[in-house]
Amino acid sequence: MSVMKNRAVLRWLVPVTAGVAVIGGGAAVGTFAAGADPALPPRSAAQLLEDLRTSRLDGLSGTVVQRADLGLPPIAALAGQATGNQLAGLVSGTHTLRVWYGGEDRQRLALVDTLGEQDVLRNGRDVWTWNSRENTAVHRKLPADGKDLASAPATPADATEQALAAIDPTTAVTVGRSATVAGRDVYELVLTPRDKASLVHQVRIALDAKEHVPLRFEVLADGADEPAFEVAFTQVDFRTPDADQFRFNPPPGVRVTEAPADERPGPAGRMPGAPGAGKATGGADADRPDVRTVGTGWTTVVVAKLDEALGAGAGGAKAGKDAPDAEMLSRVLGDLPKVSGDWGSGRLLSGKLFSVLLTDDGRVLAGLVTPERLYQAAKG
Predict the structure, then answer these.
(1) Are 149 and 15 in contact (CB under 8 A)?
(2) Which of 104, 125, 266, 359 is buried deepest, with most CB atoms within 10 A?
């Protein structure tokens, strides 16, 4: 299968509201040769982009390390606890995951930390999530149309597809230095936004020189030399995993919950410029009519209605009674700085790569932009 035609390898695996999915913006393609260590045949950015688009992946397993230093307050882990999604903690710190890919309908991810293991498995239309610490599992049957979970960058391929989704003249694409990732030679594509209002300085994508699959994805914030976000393989095997890797065998005593047949996880973390987002000012998200976008390219701002469970933290609305740990989430959001202006008032979450504004009239605005750009969009 084509890596870039699969809506990203393993993209469904981490349905968290990370907000670190980086937008594509456009490409004025450069033609610089790759670096000399290791020695690789020179290839232009256009050639590497074509390699990426035409690459095929039948199977893969490996270890992925994700590092995030987004300059955020310790809200991410608390928000994950409040929503019952421990995987939301991936937006901060360093995490190691094991991934397996056996085709478009067979994937698995395992997050192991000091508190236990959490697995997500897909085998055909069956999706299982398992928490070892609580010994609980949830089973979900995917809809027949295959439109299942939302995207967040679990692997370099996930993040790469989102970054290259809308190539146009807003981005300069060049070739960086060759390198070695997970013991394999790689070329490096460098995406640089032309719009200086974006908080993103560069996106660097390391492509396997033989398989043309992304092995590392880095995002550098404006004015920084080290990545604010990185997801990279430390070990990779391109053989197709055994079918047993994708079968869930409930451990003794596990408590299994069946999710409703028509339940779909929300579009967590869909960020400006990501696939499906509106491309122009005032554009609407086809999957979410209550979501619109302001602006284009790297400075796109997403505007949406604030979910009921989040309302108490920003707009004073009472959280739903059935929302898990809604009181904790409300308290976390209530600790965010208060801001106001001719656009209204609310609370602000800002980091190295993005800003999020939760207004008192029940809106959430987010983008890879400064808070000032959000305030401008909030006037509309």
Answers:
(1) yes
(2) 359
The Cα 140–Cα 312 span in angstroms is 30
Alpha carbon 268 to chain centroid, angstroms: 9
Q: Within 13 Å of residue 244, how many CA atoms lie on the same side as its CB?
A: 0
Query: Could you give phi then psi for residue 200, rounded to 5 degrees?
Result: -85, 125
As a whole number of angstroms, the distance between CA 157 and CA 6 comes to 10
For the chain, domains (ranges, CATH) are 3-258 (2.50.20.10), 283-378 (no CATH)
- 3-state helix vs strand vs coil in the chain, percent to 5: 20, 35, 45
The pair of structure tokens assigned to 345 is 């008032």
Strands 171-175 and 283-284: unpaired
Burial of 237 (0-12, 13-18, 19+ CB in 10 A): middle
**Tens-digit pLDDT profile for residues 250-302:** 889 999 999 875 554 433 333 333 333 344 445 555 455 578 899 888 889 99
Residue 252: Cβ within 10 Å count: 5
Q: Is the dihedral of CA 209, 212, 110, 221 positive or negative?
A: positive
pTM (2 decimals)? Answer: 0.73
Instruction: Count Cβ atoms below 10 Å from residue 321 Cβ, excluding itself.
Output: 6
- Find out whether 176 and 34 touch, Cβ atoms under 8 Å: yes
